[in-house]
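Annual report, structural modelling task.

Input specification for the adenosine-5'-diphosphate complex:
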Amino acid sequence: MNGPERVWEAVIGLEIHVQLSTRTKMFCGCEVTFGDPPNTHVCPVCLGHPGVLPVTNEKAVEYATRIALALNCRVADRTIFHRKNYFYPDLPKAYQISQYDLPLGIGGYLDVEADDGSTFRVGITRVHMEEDAGKLVHAGGASGRIDGADYSLVDFNRGGTPLVEIVTEPDISTPEQARVFLTQLRNLVEQLGVSDVNMEEGSLRCDANVSVRKPGEPFGTKTELKNMNSFRFLQRGLEAEMERQIDLLEFGERVVQATVHFDPATGTVSSLRSKEEAHDYRYFPEPDLVPIELDEAYVQRVRESLPELPAARKERLMGQYELAPKDAAILAANKALGDYFESLAAATGEVRLSATWVLGDLSAYLNAAGIDVSDSAVDTEMAAGLLKLVADGTLSGKMAKEVF
Ligand code: ADP
Ligand code: ZN
Ligand code: MG
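The model returned the following structure:
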């Protein structure tokens, strides 16, 4: 491709919100749930009544620390909460308890495996804790529940759910890289056992910042795509927004810093509103919460409790099974697929055959069906039976594929 668009390159940084799967909310004892009747998991604290006192959820701090450590961040020995003030009907206190200049984790990175087997590193600026807002339900309109209604309803069940926000450095240089990064970040967080990471239900949400520039030039003005709720939309939204910015610049116009909305149905982006600056939020330290001091022993305990992470698993799979780096990377990035391979290899004693089958026929079938390996009708026991017949020469590979 050598059209004029090749002259421009993207600069992308992501802000990812992870809902933690703690039993209770960030600062009160209400249960964290999904899909229950509206306003059935609320109390004076998460409804922001005057005079109440929040108390920090210890489990949420532990989960956030796990994420920070898995992303190679330095965990602050002293961290505090701030109030981020803004008015919106889903935020009963008119401020969100968040973190500002003393976040839990700073200065990390994630090494990401590209589809072609190469790796790239994305810096992690910060990992901080905050609380989620409630949810507005628009009663009328095209997607509404009540014909002709011109009002919205609010459900505070989600309000106060513990969130971790992960902010990356602007190290991502293509929309495809952004998709691959988010996919691997999701796998990582899933393996930490701290979140459902379900994008449709909103337990993993991604805002994407993007600007374009000519190689070697300073960063351009960025815009922000809010709430990209699928990997595919993230990539497509960034591609569309890049194109919009390039068109503007090619015509000698300026990119205006703004929040933009991507409409997957039409594939187009539209500008929503100019973005708030930090000073618009009038951040100040939350006076009702004590600072959190995490000593070295605590951080060490959390570090030791981490499961095997994808980077370590890739190395182990290469060593233990003599897998090619690319194959090991795929199996390490997808925990369920990696587990499937390891139990199949153990059951059959046929490492090569198991790897070939899992990465070949099985993956092709899963991709085509659009399902996860955990939803496959063929479990490892059945697959082991099949592969044994291939190993002892009863079936050819082609016949096995047919049986499968
Ligand atoms: P803001 O203060 O506008 O929120 P931040 O500096 O906090 O901006 O950055 C927010 C996100 O935007 C980060 O993920 C960062 O990597 C990314 N970012 C910063 N500058 C740019 C830029 N020029 N182009 C694209 N992304 C950027
Ligand atoms: Zn509550
Ligand atoms: Mg910011």
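Residues 39 and 340 are 41 Å apart (CA to CA).
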